[in-house]
Specification:
alpha+beta; 11% strand; elongated; four-stranded antiparallel sheet; Outer membrane efflux proteins (OEP); single chain
């Protein structure tokens, strides 16, 4: 009879396992696409500039000191470092779930049962010693150990631990991505600051030149060679340039404070060499192969690790449909009198039990978690593909930008040289009455604009070099 009941119970358990294993909801699956073009815009480079350490890539000692300070003090980077610690602790937590949990307990209490209950009626007829019944109020003392363990038969806990490890590695790559962004932002802001310094110096020289021209117009007016309109036009031009000077000074202040913010400090002057900006030669950057982006760019590696974690999360959610095997055990001592507490084996208590439990009827919550995990996995696939595509396009854009900016800079340099010569020519022609004041005015205005544009183009060249170094994944190593 007992064997028949046992077989029936095992049969029912097997039916439950088969039911829960087979009746899984269908989900969409999609493999990620890692295919990238063979080269960047016909480039023949096979070595990527991303392999160069940032200390060797940047040569300005003032910029290197700024980046050093930013890597130590930047708040966003320090926040990311704490994310790494959180992910590391999550690994320890998931690893702990694989091991049995053991607890200890010590307790004491009193127990009084009702007279007209099954326990009370039974106790009344029991003697501890001849002539004595069980006390009406019965003390209870006990201490011992209790252990619980879930057998990881479906690898649910192990996959959860692997997923936590992937999340941890993804946060490390996230930190590296923050480092590359921080280095690029500090460098770009530094070159922007140098450009503003040079623009300010150019405007000051132009104001001096325009002031001299204004004095000349006043003299010419006294000589009746020009009218009041010429004087007012030149005076307005001087005032416009002085207004531009204050605008540039404000840009310098804001850029300095932006750098100070990135460095995690309150506003203070930024040490820099203002004199050599226009003579800076942008570094030659090798783009390497597109396939190297998969190994160099931290955001791509982060997306890949998050994808791996998402796949493991799907396996963990899937294992929730299967029954879990739990094993519990306890050992200790219990007695109603402290003097009897350590008597062995009379006061010794122990237990051992195993439980097999799984979802049978209402599985909607588990099904929802499984479908959510799968949807997140699909999101991770698309995010991974998007990150690769974005990285390739960023590099291609910056390579094209560097080439076009160099051509533009060469032409603007010739333009500045021509307009600078035109200033002296227009002044000489005006003095000999072969040109009017308006030609002098427009020549000075065009020369100023061309010089400011040349400085802006130089800044864009330097920024493009920083941006392609960043796009290739350089800076974090």
């Amino acid at each position: 009879m007992f064997k028949n009941n046992l077989y029936k119970g095992l049969g029912l358990a097997l039916i439950c396992v088969a039911y829960t294993a087979c009746k899984l909801p269908e989900v969409a699956q999609r493999a990620e696409n890692k295919n990238v073009p063979v080269r960047f815009n016909g480039s023949q480079d096979t070595v990527s500039a991303a392999s160069i350490q940032w200390r060797k890539f940047f040569t300005d000692p003032n910029l290197i000191n700024l980046i050093d300070t930013a890597l130590k003090n930047n708040q966003e980077l320090n926040i990311t470092l704490q994310d790494i610690e959180i992910a590391k602790n999550e690994i320890k937590a998931k690893k702990g779930e694989l091991l049995p949990s053991v607890t200890y307990g010590v307790g004491a209490g009193l127990d009084k049962v009702g007279r007209y209950t099954s326990s009370g009626a039974g106790d009344a007829s029991t003697d501890i010693t001849p002539g004595k019944g069980v006390p009406e109020i019965l003390p209870d003392y006990h201490f011992g150990l209790q252990a619980n363990w879930e057998a990881d038969i479906w690898h649910k806990l192990r996959n959860a631990k692997k997923g936590a490890i992937s999340h941890y590695l993804a946060t490390v790559e996230g930190k590296n991505f923050v480092v590359t962004n921080l280095i690029a932002e500090v460098a770009n802001s530094y070159y922007e600051l140098l450009a503003s310094d040079n623009q300010l110096e150019t405007v000051k020289k132009t104001i001096e030149l325009q002031s001299n021209a204004l004095e000349l117009m006043k003299i010419q007016k006294q000589a009746m060679r020009v009218n009041e309109l010429a004087v007012r036009k030149f005076e307005a031009e001087v005032l416009s340039s002085k207004s531009l000077e204050f605008d540039i000074q404000q840009d310098i202040t804001e850029t300095e404070n932006k750098i100070n913010f990135l460095l995690g400090r309150f506003p203070q002057p930024i040490i820099r060499d203002k004199s050599s900006f226009i003579d800076l030669v942008p570094a030659t950057v090798q783009s390497g192969l597109p396939s190297q982006l998969l190994a160099n760019r931290p955001d791509i590696k982060q997306a890949e690790l998050e994808l791996a974690a998402a796949k493991l999360d799907v396996k963990v959610a899937k294992a929730q449909f299967y029954p879990s095997l739990g094993i519990s055990a306890a050992i200790g001592y219990q007695a109603f009198n402290p003097s009897y507490l350590l008597r062995t084996p009379e006061s010794l208590i122990y237990s051992l039990a195993g439980d097999l439990a799984g979802p049978l009827i209402n599985r909607n919550a588990i099904k929802a978690e499984y479908l959510t995990a799968n949807a997140k996995q699909l999101q991770a696939v698309y995010d991974y593909e998007k990150t690769i595509l974005n990285g390739y396009i960023e590099v291609a854009n910056q390579m094209s930008k560097i080439s076009n900016l160099q051509k533009s800079y060469d032409l603007k340099s010739k333009q500045v040289a021509a307009l600078t010569q035109s200033i002296d020519i227009s002044n000489d022609l005006f003095k000999s009455a072969r040109a009017d004041y308006f030609e002098v005015l427009m020549t000075q205005r065009d020369a100023l604009q061309s010089k400011l544009e040349l400085i802006e183009t130089k800044k864009q060249q330097l920024n493009a070099v920083v941006d392609i170094y960043h796009a290739l994944g350089g800076g974090w190593n």
